[in-house]
Write a structure and sequence with these properties.
single chain, Alpha-Beta Plaits, 3 helices, 4 strands, rod-shaped
Amino acid sequence: MANINLLPWRAERRKQREREFYMMLLAAAVGALLVFFVAMMWVQHVIDDQQARNDYLKGEITALDAKIKEIEELDKTRADLITRKEIIEQLQSNRSTMVHLFDELVRTIPDGVRLTTMKQVGDTITLDGRAESNQRVASYLLNIDRSPWLGHSDLKKTENTAGAKDGDKKLPYQFSMDVKLRKPEEQQKAQGTVAVIEVPSAATGEKK
């Protein structure tokens, strides 16, 4: 006689498959959560590592900014020292120049000429004075142009004040001129030219 299973085996098998499906679904969810947790930990590790690098770079940048500021202060101090040095050198140069200037004023002024005022602005000197005649003024201009320390002279005015109330009978001509001071290289060139002119010739005994 054949064995016939009268139990609802299809329903039992369906329930078993449902249990297996839910178990696989739970395992997949747990695996996904595990992968997500591991990924989050890795991402957080990367962020922490990058943040540490950023903090290190910020510290180095702050140190470099401090060094740059220190270098700028040193450059400023250096520039101030150079400026002071140039001022001191200029003052020393001007001191010797003024000595030569007054010496040349004494040497170049001819008889019959008297200076009343002298004013210097930059490398220009304004000379005001009186003279016996225009020829004396012309001689003075020529002497100034030949001077190794005084440069080109520019006669601004010359006036005969013999008939004026404040006129001087002995020195009736009143004049004013601008004189350019020579630069150091021009002074050396002019001094060299004067030296060549005054050196006597060995053969003839005459001046070159």
